[in-house]
Amino acid sequence: MKTVKDIMSTNCATVTTKDNVYEIAVKMKQFDTGFIPVVEDNKLIGVVTDRDIVIRGIAEKREGSATVEQVMSKAIQCVEPSASVQDAAKMMAQKQIRRLPVCENGQFIGVVSLGDLAVFEKSDEAAGQALSDISVNKNPAGIG
């Protein structure tokens, strides 16, 4: 049985609370992503999505110098790397999230995404069902 550790991405861009919205946007462009974990001492304290920047940043008329804390999402679901891919897929489907941070002993170590599940999906029905459920019932926030 494959685990989250087998399919997760580990080369993730991150920011800290010392960064600002402009710096987040630059990292999103540089890494071609709409999801950036916020870490302090390797501990996940939140995430910033492109939607967070739009809703909590631009729509609130915040400057590019607005702090990470002003736009980040704090209620974050995590999964252990030892969890099965099926369990991660179920969690993502139930919570309607597209990206799920992976934490081990409180430390951020990676992200499992719908793309990771899509690759695995060909050999696993549960992961495929989660992918289908998330795609059909889109989470407008896309928060993970």
Structure description:
With 144 residues, the chain is an alpha+beta fold. It has one domain (4-136): CBS-domain, CATH 3.10.580.10. It has seven helices and four strands; from the N terminus they run H-H-E-E-H-H-H-E-E-H-H. The strands form two sheets. It has a two-stranded antiparallel sheet with strand order 1-2. Strand 3 and strand 4 form a beta hairpin. Helix 5 (85-95) runs parallel beside helix 7 (125-136) and helix 6 (114-121) crosses helix 7.
Series of secondary-structure elements, N-terminal to C-terminal: HHEEHHHEEHH
Task: Compute the number of structural domains.
Answer: 1
**Total strands:** 4
Q: Helices and strands: which structural class?
A: alpha+beta
Distance between the termini: 23 Å
Number of helices: 7
Outline the biggest β-sheet: 2 strands, antiparallel
| Strand order, largest beta sheet | 1-2
Bin the helical content. 40-55%
In the CATH hierarchy, the architecture is Roll
Global Rg? 15 Å
Shape: globular
CATH class: Alpha Beta
In round numbers, the mean pLDDT is 87
The CATH superfamily label reads: CBS-domain
Low-confidence stretches: none
Feature tags:
CBS domain; 144 residues; alpha+beta; two-stranded antiparallel ribbon; 7 helices; CBS-domain; two-stranded antiparallel sheet; 41% helix
Give the topology.
Elements: H1 4-7, H2 21-31, E1 35-40, E2 43-49, H3 50-58, H4 68-71, H5 85-95, E3 99-104, E4 107-113, H6 114-121, H7 125-136
Antiparallel strand pairs: 1-2, 3-4
Helix pairs in contact: 5-7, 6-7
